[in-house]
């Protein structure tokens, strides 16, 4: 089953509660936290996450594009996050952090920038519930999908299968009706979509259509995994 996680980075920040309700058929709501240090942009922090968690029944998928996630990740779980993604390039002790996130009751996820290879982290995969492959450079929404990431997605799916893991493989960046099938065929099963959802006339319908596209491509590829 493909999971569609609309990114509120593409939503109207003045109407976050309403924008969350507009995609209530989504599996998760993706929330980008940027600190203007790890990436050149500044978004929102724990107080907004806490308010958003109270305004929607859709679980929150937090993507921390911040320095020192080892210190800050726990407070986002307390704010209501159901899944917390930290960057491999920013974490001082990724195994310890992943275990702390799980111990606090959230799903632990790690993200890799486009230039960061997955192979050095193979032994760490069992500590994670999800791995995020960035398909654009992190920091801004609306960027074009990087096709050169497709082999990396395939290699990651192979590693997950090799170790018999049930972890999810998420892609984030430029995911749309024209790219989601390639991502699914390569092995992704969780898809962050920003403008493809919030730029549509009917965001909820866009979520359903993207999910159908991904599931069709997954079935054709034959690697499918259950959630």
Automatic annotation (TrEMBL):
Question: Per its UniProt record, what Gene3D superfamilies does this chain match?
Answer: Aldolase class I (3.20.20.70)
- Listed binding positions for substrate are 7, 63, 139-142, 172-174, 194-195
Q: How is the cofactor bound?
A: Binds 1 divalent metal cation per subunit.
GO molecular function list: D-ribulose-phosphate 3-epimerase activity
Q: Please name the catalytic residues of this protein.
A: 32, 172
Catalytic EC class: isomerase
Which cofactors does this protein require?
a divalent metal cation; Zn(2+); Mn(2+); Fe(2+)
Q: Which PROSITE patterns match?
A: RIBUL_P_3_EPIMER_1, RIBUL_P_3_EPIMER_2
UniProt binding sites for a divalent metal cation: 30, 32, 63, 172
Q: Which keywords describe this protein according to UniProt?
A: Carbohydrate metabolism, Isomerase, Metal-binding
Please give the pathway this protein is involved in: Carbohydrate degradation
Task: Cite the InterPro entries for this sequence.
Answer: Aldolase_TIM, Ribul_P_3_epim, Ribul_P_3_epim-like, RibuloseP-bd_barrel
- Organism domain of life: Bacteria
Reported EC number(s) for this entry are 5.1.3.1
Catalysed reactions listed for this entry: D-ribulose 5-phosphate = D-xylulose 5-phosphate
Kindly give the HAMAP family that the UniProt entry links to this protein.
RPE
Q: Which family does it belong to?
A: Belongs to the ribulose-phosphate 3-epimerase family.
Relate the protein's function as given in its record.
Catalyzes the reversible epimerization of D-ribulose 5-phosphate to D-xylulose 5-phosphate.
Q: What is the protein's given name?
A: Ribulose-phosphate 3-epimerase
- The organism encoding this protein is Streptomyces chrestomyceticus
């Amino acid at each position: 089953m493909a999971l569609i996680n609309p990114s509120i980075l593409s939503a109207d920040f003045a109407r976050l509660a309403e924008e969350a309700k507009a995609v209530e058929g989504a599996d998760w709501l993706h929330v980008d936290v940027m600190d203007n240090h790890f990436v050149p942009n500044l978004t929102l922090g724990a107080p907004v996450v806490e308010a958003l968690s109270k305004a929607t029944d859709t679980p929150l998928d937090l993507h921390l594009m911040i320095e020192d996630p080892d210190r800050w990740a726990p407070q986002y779980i307390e704010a209501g996050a159901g899944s917390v993604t930290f960057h491999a390039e920013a974490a001082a002790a990724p195994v310890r952090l992943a275990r702390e996130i799980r111990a606090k009751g959230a799903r632990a996820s790690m993200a890799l920038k486009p230039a960061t290879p997955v192979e050095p982290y193979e032994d760490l995969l069992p500590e994670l519930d999800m791995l995020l492959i960035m398909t654009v450079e992190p920091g801004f929404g609306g960027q074009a999908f990087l096709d050169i990431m497709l082999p990396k997605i395939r290699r990651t799916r192979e590693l997950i299968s090799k170790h018999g893991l049930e972890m999810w493989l998420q892609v984030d960046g430029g995911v749309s009706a024209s790219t989601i099938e390639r991502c699914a065929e390569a092995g992704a099963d969780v898809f962050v979509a920003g403008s493809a959802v919030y730029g549509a006339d009917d965001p909820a319908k866009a979520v359903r259509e993207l999910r159908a596209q991904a599931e069709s491509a997954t079935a054709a590829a034959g690697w499918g995994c259950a959630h």
